[in-house]
Every structure is written in structure tokens, then in C-alpha cells.
Amino acid sequence: MRLEVWYKVNNDFMSEQLILIGALATQAGVSTQTIRFYEREGLLPRPKRSPGGYRVYPVAVVAEIQFIRECLTAGFTLREIKPMLRGQSHESAFDCKKISEVLKQKIRRIDEQMESLRTIRISLSDLLSECGVSPNAQTCRALDTLRAGGSVKNSGIRSVPPQPEEGRRGDTPE
Fold it and tell me: Do 28 and 39 meet the contact criterion of CB atoms below 8 Å apart?
């Protein structure tokens, strides 16, 4: 549902298109819980309220939510996204040089993760080659290697997944 609000600025009447949270969620392709989450995290400003107490948002917030989702898909954390949003709306010092450095750092991290995954893949392939050597599951050489802390231990496989870099990754309740 769209609302049109009229207000007076310098003796001129202005209007603003506002939408309710459900319509915003539908247009942005997220849930209302995600919108509330982004508000709590400071990514979106607190909404205005209708006379009935409903949250109402400027239509432009749809583009902000889509921007947040694109950034999350590209691997940015909420902490990294927040200054980029401020840069769009408040003309902060978040310039192209700064985003270039952030992107280079992201690429370096991805390269490191890819190298680690290649090493893990090689170790798992080695384990797989040991499967089927013995017909008895009780003497599976792959399991024996894992139990003994063999080659996989030195490959970089971690028993606990690594934590996301700097801040939360953006897991939203959807």
C-alpha cells in the first residue's frame, strides 16, 4: 500500500511517497523481519509511523535494501556495508579509493580461502583413494587415517569453521 504525505516547506507544499513495511518487503524481495533487523543494525533509519502506528518508509528504501543484499552477496559484512550506505546518502569520505582497498582485501581473503580449499580437496581425494581397498568397513583405511590424525590434520582442515572476518556476515532471519 502506498501513502502520499503532504507537508509544507518554505511556503510550498511537497509530497512524499511512503509504503508500509509489508509492501516494502515485497518490493525489495526480503521479509519484514529482515527490514527490522537492518533497522536494529543501523543499516536503515528508523521509519516514520502512520497515524495508526504502522511503519512507513520512503519508496527509495527499496533501493537501499537491494544495495545491502548485493553487498552481502559479494561477501561484504554488515560492518563493511554500513559506511558504504552512509557514503551514498550523506556524501561521506567513502570514496572510490577506499572501496578499491576494501575490494583488494576481499580478493586476497578469497584467494587464501581457495588455496586452503584446494589443499583440503587434495587430502580428501587421498582419503577417497584409500576407500574400497579393504572390503571390510571395520578396517577402512580412510577411517583409520582419520582416527590416527593422518594427512588431513596437516592439510588445513579445521574441526570448527573459521569465523567471518570483521563483524557479522549478515545472516538475517528469513
Answer: no
